[in-house]
Each structure stands twice: as structure tokens, then as C-alpha cells.
Specification:
The complex is a heterodimer of chains A (about 325) and B (about 500). Chain A has helices at about 1-10, 20-45, 50-75, 85-100, 105-125, 135-150, 160-170, 175-195, 195-205, 210-215, 220-245, 255-265, 280-295, 300-324; strands at about 155-160, 170, 175, 245-250. Chain A is mostly helical and about 325 residues long. The longest helix of chain A has 27 residues, at about 220-245. Chain B is an alpha/beta fold and about 500 residues long. Chain B folds into 2 domains: about 5-240, Rossmann fold (3-Layer(aba) Sandwich), CATH 3.40.50; about 255-490, P-loop containing nucleotide triphosphate hydrolases (Rossmann fold, 3-Layer(aba) Sandwich), CATH 3.40.50.300. The longest helix of chain B has 16 residues, at about 175-190. Chain B is globular and about 70 Å long. The chains are: A mainly alpha (about 325), B alpha/beta (about 500). The interface between A and B is large, with 36 and 51 residues.
């Protein structure tokens, strides 16, 4: 039975990768992360200080939370370019409500609602309107940014209550609150993707949407839900960034969609959908964050930092291609 | 026909990591010969052809063309040596014209610009010479699969290929298109082309092949003149055992109607289709491509919206607007294209089998992985699936095993009605018989089966009752005893049923 199978594998498709390559492929991203940490800790002794590590984790959290939502979307073979603008609008709505003295919980819930609603609209336009995700979310990117500018009149909104600021800048013991939020988001995402039917459907849709539909998966519902989730998690990021800056900036989150996509892809999720994991995304986000932090510690000019970041992303993806 | 082989592959061996795919295999094809290459899935046919096409490199053995030893390190080299392989998945660019496809990458040009006039003139001349009534200006996407295949062949011949390999060329063709292809192959043979023909439809071999080479488990079994071998011999050689019954049909007592459809209509596809399927019956639906038979199955399954008509399950009218609803009513659909529509190739055997029922294998919101593993283990055992582990990716399985995964999926839903669309397309003899056995087992358990098929022998061999469709309408109905191939074909072609 077994040899018959193996033969079918080698004649019908490519043969399985040898052991070492398989391991590398599986844990290559972990290895890359550890190497990066090692190099930085040698170059800059300050890097491994506990306070710096928590600092890195806090910086990473904003992109990581958004990237978790992006992972869901990309696993279904979609893309969401609007996350940065959605972050800005939901942050502005929260800040707007809170600065006029509304209760903190209400402000947060409405802000999250705005994020989820914008994501839901993305999902409906994509599934019912049959618009390509790239186009639909590109339009949303512009619309949400424009609405943010209208709502804020192009000015930062300040004067937020302490309880809200705590969510972005506070600590529990030595652990920053955003790191805790990030951990909760990734824990929940991991459980959803690996332990629930919904997760199975998400992978199935990305693997073969038509086959998933013919197996009884409600493709439109799941996809809509996935975009709504991405919007919701953008709003969660908005809580962190708005609290941390103690203000909502009209230009907040501009360009963040690219960092989120980079984290997902670095984490081994393919843009073709159906393959990848949210833990990979977490590592991907950390690689980007650690790189930023390390280059700062090393006093590399921010102009060069962009070049280095781009090169690292390219190398990682090329390496991944090679190992497949 | 000369006796010196144009192509001689001798003692070919090939090992992939952990598997010996070919061991000491030979294939000799003469000019002006149609040479069939047969074997079950996994027998090594594809590997052998890939070595010939420069995709794989042999570990041992020799390839001689016109008596001279050659190396074929790349597909490009294969082409320049006059070897052309027409794969099942055609390699044409749908958005380009016929002529553009034929001359792709070697367009006639004047300076930097394509010389369109010359290109069309040469394409026209080529198609005329081959007797193909195809306009070289037409976009390939507007051609039928059969026409596309002929364009591929024309392209190969324009590159002066004299060794042509055709991999399952008739798999997607209608009876008439197949006939046309056969006439064409006859002409090619007369022109001295050496043709290697791979097929699972063994009946075809006796119509068009001169000799046949049989492979089994990567071993060379033998080469035989077609006149000296029977179909039963051939199957025995391929499978390595006697297959006594190709169609192990048993008629089982029929129960109450599980499915009734009344006046089903999807505009432009089919109209006013009515029939009933009792529990325990296999209802065969025959018809040419475009007759609407495939779409009928999809419409019953909720994958195509109905414009009219009514569906009754167990005598009760039901609304089926989605596959999910169909599944909830106990309907399953085995699609004709398992790779594109039936399976998620990048997922495991386990995840594919449980996809429709995973929502039922939960405690609260979470999947009970132990229960899932148990369901999958039972499915693998009861269908005797050749898988290394439940975690194996479906992509790596043979066609027959993939088909079992699709069926296993529907067995888990406890479907009472199974719609099978081309249930044995592209799977080998042994796997076909297993599929038929499974169908009989299911009918014994009271499942009703609707089998849509273009394979006439299968329709005749397995159906209790046969409906024939032509241009979206049912044109004839036959009982198991009265059906003949001629009568069915006549009805499928739209001719009025005569006799019977």
C-alpha cells in the first residue's frame, strides 16, 4: 500500500522534500528570527535587555494585530488594502466620542463597530458584488481615509481619558497592555484557525473555492466574516495606537497595510491562499519589528532602514521559494 | 510501415527518492505506427513519457532516435528532436488566436513586427493540409476541447514532430469528436508519424492501435500486436490478476422514491426534465457534451439556480438554493472533475473527507479531533484507500484513490441520494471496478444513485434504467434489458427512437 502511494506521489506530482529541507521549511522562519536576534544582541548589548524586548513587543503589537486579520483574509486567497485607513477611522471615532466625555466602554465598542462594519462592507462588495478584493479594498482605503479627514477636519483629536490611554501605554506588572491584547488576539485566532469548523472552511476556500462550495461550505458567508474580522482587528489596533499616542491622528495607519501583508508573507502564508498559519504571521511581525528596533539601536539612518527591510522581506520569500 | 523503430527506449530505469518508478522498461515505436501504452495509475506511464519529453532524466537505459543514441536534457531539446507530447491539460493560450498559438514563440516576422499575413496564410495552409475546418483567426477560447486538441496536434506537426505522444486525448471528447480524432490519427499514421497513445479506455486501443505495450508497477510486462491479444488478456496483464466482472452490477429491490423532479428548467441548458429515482436504483443519464446532463446534476445539487420546476426528496417538496441545502437534504455530488471541483488538493485526506460534516464533529465550537480521526480511519479502512497516512495531501494520491476520497466524503454525510458525474473518468480498470462495487453496495443500503456518464459501456453495464438527453431535453428512456449502444447513441444525437 505504502510504496504504491509513494509512487503515485513521485510520478503524479513533485516528490516530497528531503528531511532537512522539510525541517528548514517548517522552522526556517523560526531560525531566521533566532539568527536575527543573535546578530542584534552581539552588535548591540542593549538589545537583549528585558525592557527593550518589551518595548519591541509593544511596537510590534499594532502591526501584529492587524496582520492577524490579514492572515485570515489571505488564507482565503483574498487581500485587504483598507486596514490602515480603517484603523484611522475607527481610532478617530473612538477619540471623538471619548474627548467629548462619553463612557470609555461605549467609545471602544462603537470604534470596534465601525471597524467591523467597514470590513463587512468590504466582504459584501466582494462576495455579493463580485468585485475583486484588491479593487474593493483599494476603494475602501480611499473612502475610509477620506471619511477620517472629514470627521477629524484634518486635525488630531486629543484629550483622552486615562483609562483609555492605559490600553495603549499602560502595563500589567512589567508587561505592556498592548502585548497582552496581542497575545489574546493571536490565541483566539490560533484556536479559530486550527480548532473550529470556521478555520477549516477558511483553509478550504483558499485551497479551492469551488470545491469548498460544492462540499457545502457557505463560501460567501465565510468570506464576508473574514473581511469583517480584518476590519474588527484593525479597530483593535486603533485602540492600541490611539491610546499610546494619547490622540487620534488623521493620518494614522497610512501604509500599514503593506507592513501587515509583509508580516503575513514572511510568516509563510502564500498569497494564493489555503496555506499558512497565524503563528507564522506573529513571527513575521516580530522579524519586521526586531529589525526596526535593531537598526534604530545601531543608529542606521531611517532611509537605509527601509532598504534593509525590503531586502530582508525579499530574501525571506526567495528562500521560502527555494525550499518548496 | 518499416520495421526499424523510429524511437527505441530500452532498459529505462528511474528512481525517485524512496521509490523505484521504472525498472528496466522498454518502448519501441515505429514510423507509421499507433502504439498504445497502457497500465494502471502508478504503473510508470507518465514517468516514461516525462523522460521522453525531457522533463525527468533517466537513471539507466538508452534512448535511440532513428538508430542514434540521444540525450534529452530538457523539454526544449525534445522538441528539436521532433518529439511532441500532447498532455491531457492542453497547453494553449485561450486568449490568442489559433494561428498565434500554432506559431507561438516562432512567429513569422518582418523586422521587429509580426508578419500577420504570412502567419495566417501559413496557418490556413497547415490546417487545410490536415483537413481541419478551423478558422486560424478564431480565439482558442471559442473552440471546443476537441478542436483545441486538433490545434495542438497541428502545432506539433508544424514543428515537424514525427514522434507524437497523446495522453488520454479522448477523456473529454464526445463520441462523435472521438471518431473524428480517430480518423485524424489514421491520417497521421499514413504520413509516417510514430504515435504513442495513452488511454484508460481500453476499447479504443482495439480500434486504432497497431501494437500495445503494457507496464505494471514500473515494470515492463510486454509488447503485443493488437491482433494477437484480447481485452481480457490486456486487463489481466495490466492488473496482474483476472478481473472476472468489469461491471459487477446487481439489481437490488427498489424502495420508495428518494428523488423526484418535475419540470426542471434552467434557461439555455435544459428544460422540462422530469423523472423519479427509487431507493436502490442506479439511474444512468446519457447524452453528448452540451446535452445538459452535467448541468442537470449540478442544478439538483443547488449549484446552479433553477428557473422552474420542483424537486421532491422522499416525497416532500424541498427548496434547494445551495449545495449546503442539498447536503442537508441528504444529497451528495461526485463531480466529473475531481481536481478542480471535487477536492482541495493542498489539504489532507482527513480534512477533505470531513469537510462537509466537520460542523457535526464538534463539542461546543471546537472540533473533537479524536472523533474526526476515528471517522477518517473507518472511511480509509472501509474503502480500502491506498494512503500512507490520513495526513497525506490529496495532491499526492493516484486518480483512483482521489476518487475514493471524494466518495468517502459523501458517505460521511449519509447521503440517501448520490449524483455521480463521470464517476470513473481518468481512473484505471481496477479502481473502476472497485467504484462500481461501491455503487452496488450503496444501492443495497437503499441509496438512490443518478449516474451521469459519457462512457457508454458504463451506462449500459451499471444502470437499472437509462435516460438519454439531447439539447436539454430527455429524448428516450430505456430499461436495463432493452438498452443498446446504438439506440442510446441515436437518441443522444437527436434522432427519433426507432424499433424497440
Amino acid at each position: 500500500m505504502a510504496p504504491e502511494q509513494a509512487r503515485a506521489g513521485s510520478t503524479g506530482g513533485r516528490s516530497g522534500p528531503p528531511r532537512v529541507v522539510g525541517l528548514l521549511r517548517r522552522y526556517g522562519i523560526v531560525l531566521a528570527f533566532l539568527v536575527l536576534m543573535a546578530v542584534l544582541s552581539v552588535l548591540s548589548p542593549a538589545f537583549l535587555a528585558v525592557s527593550n524586548l518589551f518595548n519591541v513587543a509593544q511596537q510590534v503589537s499594532i502591526n501584529a494585530i492587524m496582520a492577524a486579520g490579514m492572515t485570515f483574509v489571505i488564507l482565503t486567497a483574498g487581500i485587504d488594502l483598507s486596514v490602515g485607513s480603517v484603523l484611522a477611522l475607527s481610532g478617530a471615532v473612538m477619540a471623538g466620542l471619548l474627548s467629548t466625555g462619553k463612557p470609555v466602554l461605549l467609545g471602544i465598542l462603537l470604534g470596534l463597530g465601525v471597524g467591523a462594519l467597514l470590513g463587512l462592507i468590504n466582504g459584501i462588495v466582494i462576495t455579493r458584488g463580485k468585485v475583486q478584493p484588491f479593487i474593493a479594498t483599494l476603494a475602501m482605503l480611499t473612502i475610509a481615509r477620506g471619511l477620517t479627514l472629514v470627521y477629524t477636519d484634518g486635525r488630531p483629536i486629543t484629550g483622552l481619558p486615562d483609562a483609555f490611554v492605559w490600553l495603549g501605554a499602560g502595563d500589567v506588572g512589567r508587561v505592556p497592555v498592548p502585548v497582552i491584547i496581542m497575545a489574546l488576539v493571536f490565541g483566539a485566532s490560533y484556536v479559530i484557525l486550527t480548532q473550529t469548523p470556521l478555520g477549516r472552511y477558511i483553509y478550504a476556500i483558499g485551497g479551492n473555492e469551488e470545491a469548498a462550495r460544492l462540499s457545502g461550505v457557505s463560501v460567501q458567508f465565510v468570506k464576508t466574516l473574514v473581511y469583517a474580522t480584518a476590519g474588527l482587528l484593525s479597530a483593535v489596533s486603533a485602540i492600541v495606537i490611539t491610546g499610546r499616542l494619547n490622540s487620534a491622528q488623521p493620518t494614522a495607519g497610512a501604509g500599514y497595510e503593506l507592513d501587515a501583508i509583509a508580516a503575513v508573507v514572511l510568516g509563510g502564508t502564500t498569497l494564493a491562499g489555503g496555506e499558512g498559519s497565524v503563528l507564522g504571521t506573529l513571527l513575521g511581525a516580530f522579524i519586521i519589528g526586531v529589525l526596526n528596533n535593531g537598526l534604530n539601536l545601531l543608529n542606521v539612518s531611517s532611509f537605509y532602514q527601509q532598504v534593509v527591510k525590503g531586502v530582508v522581506i525579499l530574501l525571506a520569500v526567495l528562500l521560502d521559494r527555494r525550499l518548496r | 510501415m518499416t520495421d526499424a523503430p523510429l524511437l527505441a527506449m530500452t532498459g529505462i530505469s528511474k528512481t525517485f527518492p524512496g521509490v523505484r518508478a521504472l525498472h528496466d522498461v522498454s518502448l519501441e515505436v515505429r514510423a507509421g505506427e499507433v502504439h498504445a501504452l497502457v497500465g494502471e495509475n502508478g504503473a510508470g506511464k507518465s514517468t516514461l513519457i516525462r523522460i521522453l519529453g525531457g522533463i525527468h532524466q533517466r537513471d539507466a537505459g538508452e534512448i535511440r532516435l532513428r538508430g542514434r543514441a540521444v540525450e534529452i536534457p530538457s523539454p526544449r531539446r525534445a522538441r528539436t528532436l521532433g518529439i511532441s507530447i500532447i498532455h491531457q491539460e492542453l497547453n494553449l493560450v485561450p486568449a490568442l488566436s489559433v494561428a498565434e498559438n500554432i506559431f507561438l514563440g516562432r512567429e513569422p516576422h518582418r523586422g521587429a513586427l509580426i508578419d500577420w499575413r504570412t502567419m495566417y496564410a501559413r496557418a490556413e495552409a497547415l490546417l487545410a493540409e490536415l483537413g481541419l475546418p478551423i478558422d486560424p483567426r478564431r480565439r482558442v477560447s471559442t473552440l471546443s476541447v476537441a478542436e483545441q486538441q486538433l490545434v495542438e496536434i497541428a502545432k506539433a506537426l508544424s514543428e515537424e514532430a514525427d514522434i507524437l505522444v497523446m495522453d488520454e486525448p479522448t477523456a473529454a471528447l464526445t463520441v462523435e469528436e472521438t471518431e473524428r480524432l480517430f480518423r485524424f490519427i489514421h491520417d497521421l499514421r499514413a504520413r509516417g508519424v510514430a504515435i504513442t497513445y495513452i488511454t484508460h479506455r481500453l476499447e479504443e486501443i482495439f480500434r486504432i492501435a497497431d501494437r500495445v505495450t503494457v507496464l505494471r508497477d514500473g515494470q515492463y510486462i510486454g509488447t503485443f500486436p493488437i491482433a494477437e491479444i484480447t481485452l481480457d488478456d490486456l486487463i489481466r496483464l495490466m492488473v496482474g490478476r483476472q478481473i472476472t466482472e468489469k461491471y459487477p452490477k446487481e439489481t437490488v429491490p427498489q424502495g420508495s422514491p428518494v428523488l423526484e423532479v418535475r419540470g426542471l428548467t434552467v434557461r439555455g441548458l435544459f428544460a422540462d426534465v422530469s423523472f423519479t429515482v427509487p431507493r436502490g436504483e442506479i439511474l444512468g443519464i446519457a447524452g453528448l457534451v452540451g446535452s445538459g446532463k452535467t448541468e442537470l446534476a449540478y442544478a439538483i445539487f443547488g449549484a446552479l439556480p433553477l428557473d422552474g420546476g420542483q424537486i421532491l426528496i422522499d416525497g416532500r417538496p424541498v427548496e434547494i438554493h445551495s449545495p449546503a441545502a442539498a447536503i442537508a437534504h441528504g444529497i451528495g455530488l461526485v463531480t466529473e472533475d475531481r481536481k478542480r471541483l471535487g477536492l482541495i488538493l493542498g489539504m489532507s485526506v482527513r480534512a477533505n473527507i470531513t469537510l462537509p460534516i466537520i460542523g457535526r464533529l464538534c463539542r461546543g465550537a471546537l472540533i473533537r479531533h479524536g472523533d474526526e480521526a476515528e471517522v477518517v480511519r473507518q472511511a480509509i479502512t472501509s474503502l480500502d484507500m491506498a494512503v500512507a497516512s490520513p495526513e497525506q495531501l490529496v495532491r499526492q494520491l493516484s486518480g483512483g484513490t482521489q476518487q475514493k476520497v471524494v466518495v468517502a466524503k459523501w458517505l460521511q454525510t449519509h447521503a440517501r441520494l448520490l449524483l455521480l458525474s463521470e464517476p470513473t473518468r481518468g481512473i484505471d480498470v481496477g479502481a473502476k471496478v472497485e467504484m462500481y462495487r461501491l455503487m452496488v453496495d450503496l444501492t443495497r443500503q437503499g441509496v438512490g444513485i443518478v449516474m451521469v456518464s459519457s462512457e457508454m459501456p458504463e451506462i449500459l453495464g451499471m444502470s437499472d434504467r437509462i435516460l438519454v438527453m439531447h439539447e436539454g431535453r430527455i429524448t428516450a428512456e430505456f430499461g436495463r434489458e432493452e438498452a443498446t449502444q446504438e439506440a442510446i447513441m441515436a437518441s443522444a444525437a437527436g434522432r427519433v427512437r426507432s424499433g424497440t
